[in-house]
Amino acid sequence: MKLTRKTTPASRPFKLRKTAALQALFLKSLQDADGDTAAHCVHELWMRGEMAINVESMLERLWKSCGGSVPEWLPMRHVEWLPLAYEITAKFNAPRGRSNIYLVLLDYSDSRSEPYGVYVGMSAYTAAERFDQHKAGIGSAGSVLKRGIEPLTGPTMHLQKIKRLDAARIEVELAEALATAGLFVQGGH
Questions:
Q1: Residues 65 and 125 in one domain
Q2: Nearest Cα residue to 14 out of 5, 28, 26
Q3: In terms of domains, do 93 and 168 share one?
Q4: What pLDDT was estimated at residue 1?
Q5: 100 forms bridges with which residues in the sheet?
Q6: Per the confidence metrics, is the pTM higher than 0.85?
Q7: Number of domains in the chain
Q8: Which domain holds residue 19?
Q9: How far apart are CA 125 and CA 181, in angstroms?
Q10: Does residue 104 share a domain with residue 175?
């Protein structure tokens, strides 16, 4: 199966592959400098609950071997609750428009036992563009300015270019759903 940049992580194209086959495909993808396929291998193992140390090791190898071709939806570090974020965001949908829902990974390692939180936002900009604006202090939420690490684009890929009224509603409801599931949530207003 040949993957492209358009193959979304939520589609889980390797869901039916055995773990050993995924690990072998990951190694071959590194040799071929195929960041898309390797990213989907890491993602699938992550979604299955692979041990954090193994995911971190795979991420490190992936970034070293294929840094230029790793899709933006793959986080740069292991986040325990990422599968839960995918599950929750999958429950939301809206008609096409011009607004985007985005998530930002927040670092609370200095003050909380769970080191990561998440910011939920809505913007006409892409997640990466909006993250850069936050970090530059442009219309910035304090939590993202101070604690933002990276955008988490994978879980919300299906919530891009949606109607503004739906985006405003989903922003609030998604933040509430993530908080109810036990995540430390900022934004969502």
A1: no
A2: 26
A3: yes
A4: 62
A5: 123
A6: yes
A7: 2
A8: 9-69
A9: 27
A10: yes
Mean pLDDT along residues 179-188: 96
Round the average pLDDT of the chain to a whole number and report it.
Answer: 96
What phi and psi, each to the nearest 5 degrees, are found at residue 110? -85, -10
Nearest CA-CA partner of 86 in 114, 58, 127, 47? 47
116 and 143 co-located in one domain: yes
Do residues 63 and 87 share a domain? no
Q: How far is CA 90 from CA 44, 87, 99, 131, in A?
A: 16, 5, 17, 22
Q: How far is C-alpha 65 from the geometric centre of its chain's CA atoms?
A: 21
36 falls within a domain = yes
146 inside domain: yes
The two structure tokens encoding residue 159: 């919530």
Read off φ and ψ for residue 182, nearest 5 degrees: 105, 5
Residue where a domain terminates, one of 69, 100, 121: 69
Query: Taking CA 127 as the corner, what is the angle to CA 126 and CA 132, rounded to the nearest 5 degrees?
Result: 100
pLDDT tens digits, 124-164: 999 999 999 999 999 999 999 999 999 999 999 999 999 99
